[in-house]
Amino acid sequence: IDELTLQVQRDQASLTATVAQVKIEGDEVRINGLSLSGAGGKLVASGQLGPERLALVAQGEGLDLEVIAHALGLPRGALSGKLGLDADFDSAKKTQRGSILVKLDKARIDGVTISSASASAQLIGSHLDLQASAKLRDFGDFVAEARATINGSLGDPETLERATGSLNLTGEHMPLGLLSYVLPKNLGISEVR
Fold first, then answer.
1. What is the arithmetic mean of pLDDT over 72-77?
2. Which of 39, 87, 106, 147 meets the CB 3.0–4.6 Å disulfide criterion with 100?
């Protein structure tokens, strides 16, 4: 499919996506020249998805998630914030390289207020390094770091099933009373203050 334009409008929220080319071959999809506008910012991207290869080149800044959510029919208040994206990676059986950075500012997701959040990943050979941080108004500040070893394309679900690695998660300024919701009952802890 060449030169595709899709417009979604609901009330005052309007999104326009244009794609230079969409190519589907078996279980592989290629999208070239995607441009999204009308969301308070702009997103441009190209990519490929299939079990043999996952690739993405994308840049976006200032995307208004509330406008996007409303245009797509989600209830008002379900999602808001500004999203930024910078990605350039290629993951195939023989090629593993690239990075991705996602930033979220002044967001609200299903009642949870997020002052800021970011996630980044670097892929070099079979090594995948991930870093993430989030400042949640009512739940505290979190930092996560992960390192994984992968063999194969990230587009192949079996690659993720075989991945091995480590994860470190740090939380600060957390209301400890919230632990009572996540601690297993069989620990015998009845109350956390």
1. 82
2. 87
